[in-house]
Specification:
By secondary structure, the chain is an alpha+beta fold. The chain is built from three helices and five strands; from the N terminus they run E-E-H-E-E-E-H-H. It has a single domain, classed as Aldehyde oxidase/xanthine dehydrogenase, molybdopterin binding domain (Aldehyde Oxidoreductase, domain 4). The strands form two sheets. A three-stranded mixed β-sheet has the order 1-2-5. A two-stranded antiparallel ribbon has the order 3-4. Helix 1 packs across helix 2. The longest helix has 20 residues.
Length: 152
């Protein structure tokens, strides 16, 4: 028997053809996590994880000074995190599933389900919009701006 949760993430992103700025328009998570005991808190947990995944994909970066061996952005003053304007629309769908093998309550957890796959979905949405594949997070302007197609 398999006791894991399963999920898929979908992202619609827009990339400005002149500046290369990436904006997330919509995000969708479809989750199979057994019986959902409290749909409101489960949805909130997945939405929070999706927001964390978007931050990891687009802006959060740990900068290390390799000469001196310390973290340059060691506090929140220089560490960017997503805000409400960065993530305009979330949608979470829980598939109706009751797993009688995993526990007597037929429920599983949704803890990691919301973050796994979000960054890849965002990178794929950027690729779909631009034709530029970025394989290193975060997907920032310096990694794709010079490879954007010419705008006429």
């Amino acid at each position: 028997y398999q006791q894991s949760t399963f999920g898929a993430h979908f992202v619609e992103a827009a990339v400005d053809s002149f500046t290369g700025e990436i904006r997330i328009r919509r995000m969708l998570a479809v989750c199979a996590a057994g019986r959902i005991l409290n749909p409101l808190t489960a949805r909130s947990q997945v939405v929070g994880a999706m927001t964390m995944g978007a931050g990891a994909a687009l802006m959060e970066e740990l900068a290390v000074d390799k000469r001196r061996g310390f973290f340059v952005n060691h506090d929140l003053a220089g560490y960017e995190v997503p805000v409400h304007a960065d993530i305009p629309h979330h949608e979470v769908i829980f598939l109706d599933e009751a797993d009688d093998k995993v526990s007597p309550m037929k429920a599983k957890g949704v803890a990691e389900l919301g973050i796994c796959g979000v960054a890849a979905a965002i990178a794929n949405a950027v690729y779909n919009a631009t034709g530029v594949r970025v394989r290193e997070y975060p997907v920032t302007l310096d990694k794709h701006l010079d490879r954007l197609p010419a705008v006429s």
